[in-house]
Amino acid sequence: MPQILSPLPGTFYRSASPDKPPYKADGDAVAVGDVIGLVEVMKSFHEVRSEVAGENVRFVADNEEPVMAGAPLADLD
């Protein structure tokens, strides 16, 4: 099963700001290069782009959850 992994350690955010919708919702399709969230490191936000394509994305990392580099953020079918 393909996974989208965190490129670096920090805090994972599923949307650009609290009043914006998430980049992707559970069940969405994901293409290579799609932004699925942000990782914040020391007040700097980095886009998380998918390196794999798939259907039915399921997030395993919660919004605002601390993550380590290489940690799974989402699974794809």
UniProtKB/TrEMBL annotation:
Pathway: Lipid metabolism; fatty acid biosynthesis. GO terms for cellular component: acetyl-CoA carboxylase complex. One of its GO terms (biological process) is fatty acid biosynthetic process. Residues 1-20 are annotated as: Disordered. Gene3D superfamilies: 2.40.50.100. Residues 1-77 form the Lipoyl-binding domain. SUPFAM superfamilies: Single hybrid motif. Keywords: Biotin, Fatty acid biosynthesis, Fatty acid metabolism, Lipid biosynthesis, Lipid metabolism. One of its GO terms (molecular function) is acetyl-CoA carboxylase activity. The keyword Metal-binding does not apply. This protein is a component of the acetyl coenzyme A carboxylase complex; first, biotin carboxylase catalyzes the carboxylation of the carrier protein and then the transcarboxylase transfers the carboxyl group to form malonyl-CoA. This is Biotin carboxyl carrier protein of acetyl-CoA carboxylase. It comes from Aureimonas phyllosphaerae.
